[in-house]
Amino acid sequence: MENKMRELSQKLIDFDIMESFDKKDYFVSKSNYYAKKIIDSWPKWDKKIVNISGEEYSGKTHLSKIFKSNTNALYLKAQQLNDQILIQIKLSDCIIIEDLNEDISQKLLYSIFNLVEQDNKFLLLSSKKPVNSMEFSLPDLVSRLKNCLTAKLELPDDDLIYAIILKKFSDRQITIDRKIIEYVVKRISRSYRNIHEFIYKIDELSLKKKKSINIKIIKEIIK
Predict the structure, then answer these.
(1) CA nearest 145: which of 93, 109, 121?
(2) Could you give the CA distance from residue 150 to residue 127 in angstroms, rounded to a whole number?
(3) E strands within the chain?
(4) How far apart, in whole angstroms, are the C-alpha atoms of residue 203 and residue 198?
(5) How would you write 116-180 as a 3-class SS string?
(6) Is 100 helix (H, G, I), strand (E, B) or coil?
(7) How far apart are the C-alpha atoms of 217 and 202, rounded to whole Å?
């Protein structure tokens, strides 16, 4: 089972889809309302550093892209961070760091926090785990992380699942009866990852294998 999941993950990465990150394509429900509200409330943030966390495929990148569009922020992936990046951060009023995890240099992250605070900048962090629960050992960094404004993207409700499936089909130019989507919403597991894998399987059937999507196929995929 683990090998099959690994193989599917690789296929998901390799499958090239032009995904829309436009503001109008972000659907708000009770699962993500607070996080979206924070993004929209900039620059009237209660804290200079905001962390949005959630499981893979939960929409963190979409929110980051909306924030970038609103602010012209410097957009960085956590693995890009090094001492030279500090120069770019110094020249930017707003910064986004995506996919933050515990592999990052603690001293470097603390230096970034200091720059943000001292120069009155704004920093948006995205991560799977909330940053205030990460197991860092540098006391000053731990203290700063506890003082961030945090918002967690909760597991999707029915309305959000429906919107995600509809958007993903639209991105892929797949036409499907809305009654079929409603059928899926009632039966699919409440997990962003499972929804993503479901969409990939639909992709494979409709685009690669040239099969029309009907209830029979949907039932097989959900099983």
Answers:
(1) 109
(2) 11
(3) 49-53, 74-77, 94-100, 122-127, 149-152
(4) 9
(5) HHHCCCEEEEEECCCHHHCCCCCHHHHHHHHCCEEEECCCCCHHHHHHHHHHHHHHCCCCCCHHH
(6) strand
(7) 9
State the first-to-last Cα distance of the chain, in angstroms, to the nearest integer: 14
Residue in the structure block whose two tokens are 């429906």: 162
- Name residues whose C-beta falls within 8 Å of residue 210's C-beta, 6 or more positions apart in sequence: none
pTM: 0.84
β-strand partners of 53: 127, 152
Q: Is residue 125 within 8 Å of 131, Cβ to Cβ?
A: yes
Q: How far apart are CA 138 and CA 142, in angstroms?
A: 6
Name the token pair of 93: 């009023």
Lowest mean pLDDT across 129-133, 194-198, 203-207: 203-207
pLDDT in tens, 180-189: 889 999 988 8
The whole-angstrom separation of Cα 50 and Cα 136 is 18
